[in-house]
Amino acid sequence: MNKLAIQGVIFDYGGTIDTNSRHWAEVLWEKYVEVKVPVDKESFREAYVHGERTLAKEYLIFPEHNFHDVLRVKTRIQIEYLVEQGKLDAQAAHDNAYAAKVADLCYDYVLKVLERTRPVVKALSEHYKLVLVSNFYGNIETILKDFGLAPYFSSIVESSVVGVRKPDPAIYQLGVDAMGYPADKVLVVGDSFSKDVVPAKMVGCKVAWLKGQGWGNEVIDESLPDLIVTDLPEILPYLI
Length: 240
Fold this sequence. Notes:
Layout: E1 8-11, H1 24-35, H2 41-57, H3 67-84, H4 90-95, H5 98-125, E2 129-134, H6 140-146, E3 155-158, H7 159-162, H8 170-179, E4 186-190, H9 193-202, E5 206-210, E6 227-229, H10 236-239
Parallel strand pairs: 1-2, 1-4, 2-3, 4-5, 5-6
Helix pairs in contact: 1-5, 2-3, 3-5
């Protein structure tokens, strides 16, 4: 097994550290089914997209919000949309507390995933400088502290703070700048082919693609990443 010749690692957060390669839409849908929210998957997907667009436009998440708070806001927006669109009965949504139940289950899911991914981040931090590059809402530092991840990252590049979002390669260039090493000595670890792999390669980084259950409809070229894994711990033998 050939070791990757790098000096630092840039991590994506959502879909990488918190779900270990599962797109958040799939995690949420799994919990909708578990709670027995009476909507079909296509309606849910519409609500998910509406929620993400709403959060991109409106200031509803604050720096002090932890990830449980974020999930509560997301699921509330989704359920309200489904009610407004006539896809879900308002009284049933209220009586069954669908939004709160889905959020709680998703938070518990992340806590379990972190038992597998946090040790990877910790192990790499003992050998490499780590930087986080994430599309987020201005509260990623609070989330990292809540999940015991904050000590492992020397710098954070967060879209809502720096004013540029993936898939714009400029956000990865900011990560490279924060790292302070040549781009070709930096490994980017991310789950999204279009938002992580492609822009990171455009700025000259090496890339480990955490390939898993994505959103779909992406054009994939598996020759582009330097490494493809399906479980975050699989990257360790290539780096340590």
